[in-house]
Design goal:
Length: 193
């Protein structure tokens, strides 16, 4: 699909492009990002260029990942927020996964949650997502705090779910349903009695 932009009180979410190479490269020098996210490590300027010029636009074009660069109103990079693993977005399952990272100097300001809300609103209202998943390596407390603040209901641990840098890791998982956000409609849901 054609990339879109979203805005919130403090933030602009737009597709990454060439002007973001330096700021993405700088943000991904923080070891917390390769620690939890499958980005190259070490993360070079070429990696940043490949991400903003090729991988991120290809995700929109091929309907594999809808990734937004998140920016302050002044234009500073906050991070990345998007829908990943969307293979079942347009099947009857209507599922996607929320994925994000935030630059170290922008953390702790509520920006991640604010950007997450905008993407979730769009996923439910614009794309008809009926189950949005959150999956993080077990032990990622910061990510879990964001997911909980967004309303995700924790669903437990999936053993050895994630392969990260040559080892299998357990995953914490959660899901957010439109009904958790007070939305009605969609495929009727018969929850476990
Ligand atoms: C996870 C991450 C995006 C959180 O970003 P953030 O900007 O700090 O998040 P916010 O400011 O929106 O805060 C959201 C909540 O998380 C809490 N939080 C943030 N870091 C935390 C931590 N290390 N431990 C516990 N809670 C934490 C905040 O206190 C806040 O909770 P509150 O609203 O109840 O006060 C950031 O730490 C990051 O980029 N980490 C590396 C990449 C990563 O792990 N991505 C997720 C992969 S699944």
């Amino acid at each position: 699909m054609e990339p879109i932009t979203l805005s919130t009180g403090r933030l602009l979410l737009r597709p990454f492009d060439a002007r973001d190479t330096e700021s993405v490269h700088a943000a991904c020098q923080d070891p917390e990002i390769p620690r939890w996210i499958p980005v190259p490590d070490p993360y070079t300027r070429d990696d940043a260029e490949e991400f903003v010029l090729n991988a991120s636009p290809a995700g929109w074009r091929d309907d594999t990942t809808y990734n937004f660069g998140v920016f302050t109103r002044e234009g500073a990079l906050v991070g990345s927020m998007g829908l990943v693993r969307i293979a079942h977005l347009r099947t009857a399952e209507r599922q996607a996964e929320l994925g994000f990272w935030t630059a170290k100097e922008q953390r702790g300001k509520g920006y991640t949650v604010e950007a997450g809300r905008a993407v979730i609103d769009w996923a439910f209202a614009g794309l008809g997502v009926e189950r949005l998943e959150w999956i993080a390596t077990a032990g990622n407390h910061a990510s879990r705090a964001v997911a909980i603040r967004l309303g995700f209901v924790m669903e437990g641990v999936q053993r050895a779910r994630i392969v990260h840098r040559g080892t299998r890791r357990d995953a914490w998982t959660g899901a957010l349903l439109p009904s958790d956000w007070g939305r009605t409609g969609g495929t009727p849901y018969l929850a476990a009695p």
